[in-house]
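Practice problem 4.
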């Protein structure tokens, strides 16, 4: 486990420099001495994600122990990793400390051993007092940046605390059953025969009692089932799909919602665009694996002159690029990587996408706008601004008890999502 602590430290240094967590973990794995077992990979993943969930709490706990000054990045990151293991895992404390001492020597030579040993032992001794001090500020208590907490407090005066606490939880593993192959009850039985227990959510969803590696899921390789949060599974249902329609998924990669559309209705002419070439390749491979046909294109949706054939669409799904503030429990690095100024910049991009795509919808057709965000600038304000400038747009109600005014609040079974359904009149 010394190696896992070392790799988790390498990954954390990268996230502290502004790199995305998945990328940082992939890079860290490449530096492993020898092949990692599945168990070791899972342990590294757990620590990598766990540290981001509680990062501010951990940094606050360590700060008084640094006394003179913060140590250099690898030692600081190693201590954050060690603090996480001591405070949030069941690893034996003496093992955490002795491994960290060895890892410190690998990074900084034997001179760093005493310091790391002293800090972690003091943390163990003063654990309760340090935690109390750390939790005295909202940033330490909820492990989110100050501006993020303030925004939620302003926009969700009743629910902000629940939202922040939810973002520190482990997300469930949720499946979407491919209706081309079976229905939810049949697939639930297949799972149960494979020793996997689950419960239904939404129309095609199953929530597993425990996450499993995907190759344990019956028929996964053949596309009988996909992994997708329950809130993301609303999109195709809100589009009001029928056979023969021409549908555009304007920001489609890696193709989760596009595949769901095709699973529900096979004779749809689907255009799936994305402006990220790598993600378009992934999407094409996914469709191929699942035996689905779509017109996939690497294209910028705000430049229809480059890709559009001039025929109007019956339906458009705009699953817009957003802050991801509704999916922090799945991507806990998001809250540290985003900056307050990103929000108006993203809102401007979303507004441009909406305005460019609206003329491509036929009369009587629909555009569904979605984000996995909780921030009003990207959601309700975007919707209201759009309705204010488009006199031929009418808002259709979303008939769902969880989707209050289009906003799905994050709860045990759902990520935070927003939907607005516009009809062209
Ligand atoms: C929320 S993700 C889409 C997820 C996808 N709908 C799914 O369900 O798997 C947003 C996507 O928008 C793409 N994107 C951002 N700006 C775009 C643009 N101008 N044109 C096309 N795609 C864009 C990003 O590359 C990203 O893949």
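Answer key:
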């Amino acid at each position: 486990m010394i190696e896992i602590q070392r790799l988790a430290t390498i990954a954390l240094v990268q996230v502290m420099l502004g790199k995305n967590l998945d990328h940082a973990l992939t890079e860290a794995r490449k530096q492993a001495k020898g092949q990692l077992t599945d168990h070791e990979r899972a342990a590294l993943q757990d620590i990598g994600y766990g540290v981001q969930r509680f990062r501010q709490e951990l940094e606050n706990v360590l700060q008084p122990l640094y006394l003179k000054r913060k140590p250099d990045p690898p030692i600081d990151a190693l201590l954050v990793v060690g603090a996480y293991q001591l405070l949030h895992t069941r690893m034996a404390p003496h093992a955490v400390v002795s491994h960290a001492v060895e890892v410190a020597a690998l990074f900084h030579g034997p001179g760093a051993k005493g310091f790391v040993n002293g800090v972690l032992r003091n943390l163990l001794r003063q654990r309760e007092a340090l935690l109390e001090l750390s939790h005295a500020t909202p940033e330490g208590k909820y492990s989110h940046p100050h501006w993020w907490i303030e925004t939620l407090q302003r926009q969700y005066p009743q629910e902000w605390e629940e939202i922040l606490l939810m973002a520190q939880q482990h997300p469930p593993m949720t499946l979407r059953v491919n209706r081309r192959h079976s229905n939810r009850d049949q697939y639930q039985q297949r799972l149960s025969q494979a020793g996997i227990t689950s419960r239904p959510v939404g129309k095609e969803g199953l929530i597993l009692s425990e996450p499993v590696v995907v190759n344990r899921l019956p028929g996964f390789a053949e596309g009988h089932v996909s992994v997708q949060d329950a809130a993301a599974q609303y999109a195709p249902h809100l589009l009001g799909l029928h056979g023969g329609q021409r549908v555009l998924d304007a920001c489609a990669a890696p193709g989760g919602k596009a595949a769901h559309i095709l699973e529900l209705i096979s004779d749809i002419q689907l255009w799936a665009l994305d402006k990220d070439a790598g993600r378009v390749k992934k999407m094409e491979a996914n469709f191929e694996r699942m035996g689905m046909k779509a017109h996939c294109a690497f294209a910028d949706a705000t430049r229809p002159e480059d890709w559009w054939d001039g025929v109007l669409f019956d339906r458009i799904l705009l699953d817009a690029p957003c802050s991801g503030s509704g999916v922090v429990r799945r991507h806990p690095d998001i809250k540290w990587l985003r900056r307050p100024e990103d929000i108006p910049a993203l809102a401007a991009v979303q507004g441009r996408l909406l305005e460019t795509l609206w003329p491509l919808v036929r009369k009587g057709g629909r555009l569904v706008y979605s984000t996995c965000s909780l921030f009003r600038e990207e959601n309700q304000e975007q919707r209201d601004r759009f309705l204010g400038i488009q006199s031929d747009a009418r808002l259709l109600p979303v008939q769902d008890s969880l989707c209050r005014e289009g906003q799905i609040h994050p709860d045990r079974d759902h990520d935070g999502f927003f939907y607005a359904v516009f009809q062209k009149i």
